[in-house]
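Hey forum,

I'm writing up a methods section and want to include a predicted complex as supplementary material. The small molecule is zinc ion. I've pasted the protein sequence and the SMILES. Can someone with a working setup run it? I'll credit the forum in the acknowledgements.
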Amino acid sequence: MPRHIVCLTFDFDVVSIPIARGQTTPTALSRGEFGLVGADRLLDLLAARGLPATWFIPGHTLESFPAPCARIHAAGHEIGHHGWTHRQPAALSPAEEEQELLRANLAIEAVTGQKARGYRSPAWNISAATLDLLITHGFSYDSSMMGHDYLPYFARRGDQAPLLDPFVFGAPTDLLEMPISWSLDDYPHFEYGVTQAGILPGLSAAGGVLQNWIDDFDYMAETHDWGVITYTFHPFVIGRGHRMKILARLLDHLSAKGAIFMTMEAAAAEARTHLTGPTSDA
Ligand SMILES: [Zn+2]
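Reply by user p_vandermeer:
Happy to help. Structure tokens for the complex are below, copy them as they are.
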């Protein structure tokens, strides 16, 4: 019996992104503030359909906006780790990374009663130290890499990528990777932005993006008996009216095709039974 699993994930960044980028003018902050509006709409939508989701929440959001975070937990959704600030781990020292892990885990524990089982890097760029830190601090899975689209895999430690010699894979760890993709993330499709690094055009027509997201699920259903597809949404992005409407249409399609909606923690646990690796019997 095929099982096509869908993880709906929401990165609840609110104002942590502009603050991490030094964009603290009132307009820049208000752009993130809209995430509070979007989160309410999304929680209503998920409740109306009875769907579980995973919310990756920075410690900054948990400490700044405790009420919506409590609502997320009360609704039965998983809360995953998303740093304390929204600085990418690759830009931090290992000691700073560990401080972020510990501080945000305390904030998560204050809401849920337990530390996070899963981690997603802010800005999707982990460092050479991140995996070891996640293992040391008891995480079950990471969701920050892009090595597959439908099959979770065991994250590797110590890949070697010299400029003038061949690439060498490192050894797999017991940390499960729940892969992501920019194409399955609402942010680059929709968000317009100008930075010193360049212009992110965004503002794509929603119908075209919906078709991409539908086709990625359908391809999994056509080519895999078992697989997981992970969609990444940001409340301040997907929460706009025309985007809420395509999200509802996406959920209609997935439901009609027999998708199995799971939290990422539950999907990761099931994935371990499907994989060969360090603890495939775990
Ligand atoms: Zn984020």
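Some notes you might quote in the supplement: The mean pLDDT is 95. Residues 3-272 form a domain with the TIM Barrel fold (CATH 3.20.20.370).
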